[in-house]
Amino acid sequence: MSSRIALVLGSTGGIxxxxxxxxxxxxxxxxxxxxxxxTVPGLDLLDEASVEACANRAxxxxxxxxxxxxxxxxxxxEGVRPEKSMREIDPVxxxxxxxxxxxxxxxxxxxxxxxLPKEDRSVFxxxxxxxxxxxxxxxxxxxxxxxxKAALNQVVRTAAVELARKKPNAICVALHPGTVRTSLTDxxxxxxxxxxxxxxxxxxxxxxxxxxxPEQSGQFFDHRGAVIPW
Length: 230
Description:
Blueprint: E1 4-9, H1 14-26, E2 31-35, H2 48-60, E3 64-70, H3 91-112, E4 122-127, H4 143-166, E5 170-176, E6 179-180, E7 195-196, H5 198-210, E8 220-222
Parallel strand pairs: 1-2, 1-3, 3-4, 4-5, 5-8, 6-7
Helix pairs in contact: 1-5, 2-3, 3-4
């Protein structure tokens, strides 16, 4: 029986590092491998060659990839705060958000979905955000981030359709982790809002992942396993 491998993309971030720890403690996988800007090879969402290099490194490892966990993303690229009004929309900042939150994860799917096994159950997870739900948008604001995450959700849905034709036991989903106490959410936590520690969030997300079936591929879930409308 081949060894089972889990990959964590963005493994040095607040959620990514917590997921790495949780996976190592669970002993569910024989090997847990992380990729980030500081690993060798390094992972840079703005450089497709680096994404391909990381995927090739994972492909070279003996074993079956059972999980690819994409923990990348940025609410405030280069420190630019989310827009409160459309007057604050800036095309450069908009493009940066799309590059990191939509195009980058799409490139991860392009290069990492092909290394999932053809027959065994496997899961590709990318972290989206509830604010990317068009149906759930009642507060407005945050134009670039909302739009980028909505685009990411569409990429997940589309990739899942294609994946099902080639690998019927593979699952590709978007997950909303909730509000997690990381550098990404510093300054945005509201009074009364449930804020999770990274370790608790990672365990909740991994529990949801463990319960997924191929029939649920292409959907959008929160950290409790509830479906979020598009």
